[in-house]
Automatic annotation (TrEMBL):
InterPro entries, A to Z: Atg5, ATG5_HBR, Atg5_HR, ATG5_UblA, Atg5_UblA_dom_sf, ATG5_UblB
Main location: membrane
Protein family per UniProt: Belongs to the ATG5 family.
Keywords per UniProt: Autophagy, Isopeptide bond, Membrane, Ubl conjugation
Topological type in the membrane: Peripheral membrane protein
All residue ranges annotated as the Autophagy protein ATG5 alpha-helical bundle region domain in the record: 118-174
Domain Autophagy protein ATG5 UblA: from-to ranges: 33-103
Name of the featured protein: Autophagy protein 5
Native organism: Entamoeba nuttalli (strain P19)
Protein's GO biological process: autophagy of mitochondrion; cellular response to nitrogen starvation; piecemeal microautophagy of the nucleus
Any one GO molecular-function label of the UniProt entry: Atg8-family ligase activity
Length: 288
């Protein structure tokens, strides 16, 4: 496909809604003398430790624990700090707004990607960005166009929710003369784990659809009893035979015949991954 063909698939109205998408949150922090509640209107692309940095500083001074011991709970399920807020909402919200997040402390600190400071988020986000571009093109040549000196302003735009400026900085690698080989995807079947994958843009001479991408993922995955229940269900049942499940991207339930390329161009997160949530159907979800 040529540059013009990729560009023709981009819907500027939808892109605008994705960039400006926010989620109302209420954060409960159990201080020793009283619980404190703080309201936020958070960007879907934001990370919890960065959003809550002022509240966390005060809380950690009281409990005398390192920030790496902080836990985040939604509907009694722990969530990872490095999951974008929009993904946490899509996977766990129960229909009530604002979504409530409870801060806690765990003595069993995570051995994977422990959070230490803002530099942790920055490095993680840039690493995700590079990984998604590599999976998309199958090489590191394109990511080299992202100059070292642009990394800091890129993160600053993201941290300040200046996502239009962020996207402009990424334009050299968003649409190029190089054909996409794959769609980089993070699949979610719950709050505890995600599955990183890359699905071919074209299968059998046509653009791969969402349901075809899911079928490829399931075919290649060795599913066992430790996997989430919804994933185990799909091991033995076609998605169409599971009416209580739906696929959510950026807060929207997506038709199964939607091309993955269109979804990636219009609904990817700021890390350029398509974050796909498989969850139980909720009447309050929006359908397009």
């Amino acid at each position: 496909m040529q540059v013009a063909e990729y560009s023709s698939l981009i819907d500027s109205t939808i892109k605008r809604k994705v960039i400006e998408g926010t989620i109302p949150l209420i954060v409960r922090i159990p201080f020793k003398n009283e619980e404190k509640f703080t309201l936020y209107n958070a960007s879907r692309n934001e990370y919890l430790p960065f959003l809550l940095k002022n509240s966390l500083t005060e809380f950690l001074q009281e409990v005398e624990q390192p920030i790496s011991s902080v836990t985040y709970t939604v509907n009694e399920q722990n969530v990872k700090w490095y999951f974008p807020i929009g993904v946490i909402f899509d996977a766990l919200h129960n229909g009530s707004l604002p979504m409530e997040i409870t801060i806690g402390i765990s003595q069993n600190q995570s051995t994977f990607q422990p959070y230490e400071n803002e530099e942790t988020i920055k490095n993680y986000h840039i690493q995700q960005l590079k990984e998604s571009v590599y999976l998309r093109y199958g090489s590191i040549q394109t990511i080299r166009q992202l100059a070292v000196e642009s990394i800091t302003p890129l993160w600053e735009c993201h941290a300040q929710n200046k996502l239009e400026e962020y996207e402009q900085l990424l334009n050299p690698i968003l649409i190029t003369g190089e054909n996409w080989q794959n769609i980089p995807i993070h699949w979610y079947f719950g709050s505890q784990r995600r599955y990183t994958d890359c699905i071919p843009v074209i299968i059998n001479d046509h653009l791969t659809t969402l349901i075809e991408g899911l079928q490829v993922f399931l075919k290649e995955r060795d599913i066992n009893d430790n996997d989430p229940p919804s994933l185990q269900l799909l091991k033995t049942n076609a998605f169409e035979q599971c009416p209580n499940l739906c696929i959510v991207i950026q807060g929207i339930t997506i038709p199964l015949d939607t091309p993955l390329l269109w979804l990636a161009l219009n609904l990817s997160h700021s890390d350029l991954f398509l974050h796909v949530v498989i969850r139980k159907t909720d009447e309050l979800l929006i359908v397009i």
